[in-house]
Design a protein that fits this description.
By secondary structure, the chain is an alpha+beta fold. The chain has four helices and 15 strands. It has two domains: 176 residues, Probable tRNA modification gtpase trme, domain 1 (Gyrase A, domain 2, 2-Layer Sandwich); 57 residues, Elongation Factor Tu (Ef-tu), domain 3, CATH 2.40.30. 15% of the residues lie in helices and 35% in strands. The strands form three sheets. It has a six-stranded antiparallel β-sheet. It is globular and about 60 Å long.
C-alpha cells in the first residue's frame, strides 16, 4: 500500500467548504466513508481521498505524496471560511476480513473491505493488487495523474462523483463529459500474457492505442482508446486482449 497521510479539517464551515470543492456529496459523511476527488477548474485530477466524520471535524485520508500539495490547495480556497486544516499523526489500517470496531466500509467496491483510521497502520494480507485490477480500481501515482479525467478513470462506478450534489471545482467539465459526450478513452481491465513495465505503450495494428498500468496475474488495467483497441494488442513483450 502506498503511504497515506491524514489531514484534519475543523471549524464551523468545514462541511460546506468541502461540499463546494470535492466531487462527492459531503452531506453523506455521517453514513460512512465518502470517496471523492479534487479537480482543477478544467476538470483534471489533482488528488483522490476518503472523507470520514470525526465528531464535527472531517478527516481526509489521502495519498502521502499528494498530501502537502493538497493541503496548500485547500488553504488557497479557504479565503474567509471558518476552517482549519492540519496534518495529523493518524494512520490507516485496512482489510477484507472481519472489520474491527470503528472501521468503515470502503465505498468503492464491497470486495475492498474496510478502512480504519487510528493509531496503527497495516494490512491483513489481502492481495490488494489483484483486487485493484479485478475491479479496475485506479491508484494515485499509477493510473491517476495530472492528465486524468475522473470519468475516464471510472469514478462514477466507484461512488467517487455525484451528479446531483451541485457545484464544485471542475464540475462543469465533468458534467459535460457525462451528459453531452460519449467517452472514447478510459481505464479498462484487459487480459495479458507476459509482463511489461507500468507505463508501457500499447499498440495494435501498428498504432498506439493506450498505456499499460497495474498487473496481477493474467489481468491488467490499461488506458485505452476504444475505437483502436481491437484484436490482439502488444505492450513490450506482452500480448493483450480487451472485449468491449
Amino acid at each position: 500500500m502506498r503511504a497515506r497521510k491524514i489531514l484534519r479539517l475543523s471549524g464551523a464551515d468545514t462541511r460546506d467548504f468541502l461540499q463546494g470543492l470535492v466531487t462527492s456529496d459531503v452531506t453523506k459523511i455521517d453514513q460512512g466513508l465518502v470517496y471523492a476527488a479534487m479537480l482543477t477548474p478544467q476538470g483534471k485530477y489533482i488528488a483522490d481521498f476518503f472523507l470520514a466524520a470525526d465528531g464535527d471535524d472531517v478527516l481526509l485520508d489521502g495519498d502521502a505524496e499528494q498530501a502537502d500539495a493538497l493541503q496548500k490547495r485547500l488553504a488557497m480556497y479557504r479565503l474567509r471560511a471558518k476552517v482549519e486544516i492540519s496534518a495529523t499523526d493518524l494512520q490507516v489500517k485496512r482489510g477484507t476480513g472481519p472489520a474491527p470496531e470503528g472501521a468503515l466500509a470502503d465505498p468503492r467496491h464491497p470486495d475492498l473491505g474496510w478502512r480504519l483510521i487510528g493509531n496503527v497502520s497495516g494490512e491483513d494480507g489481502s492481495d490488494w493488487d489483484a483486487l485493484h485490477v479485478a475491479h479496475c480500481i485506479p491508484q494515485a501515482g499509477i493510473e491517476l495523474g495530472p492528465d486524468s479525467y475522473i470519468l475516464e478513470a471510472g469514478f462514477e462506478a466507484l461512488q467517487g462523483v455525484d451528479f446531483r450534489k451541485g457545484c464544485y471545482v471542475g464540475q462543469e467539465v465533468t458534467a459535460r463529459m457525462k451528459h453531452k459526450t460519449e467517452l472514447r478513452k478510459g481505464l479498462r481491465r484487459v487480459e495479458i500474457n507476459g509482463k511489461a513495465p507500468v507505463g508501457s505503450e500499447i499498440t495494435a495494428n501498428g498504432k498506439v492505442v493506450g498505456t499499460l498500468f497495474s498487473q496481477a496475474g493474467d489481468r491488467a488495467i490499461a488506458y485505452l482508446r476504444f475505437d483502436r483497441a481491437k484484436g490482439e494488442m502488444r505492450a513490450g513483450d506482452a500480448t493483450l486482449h480487451w472485449q468491449a
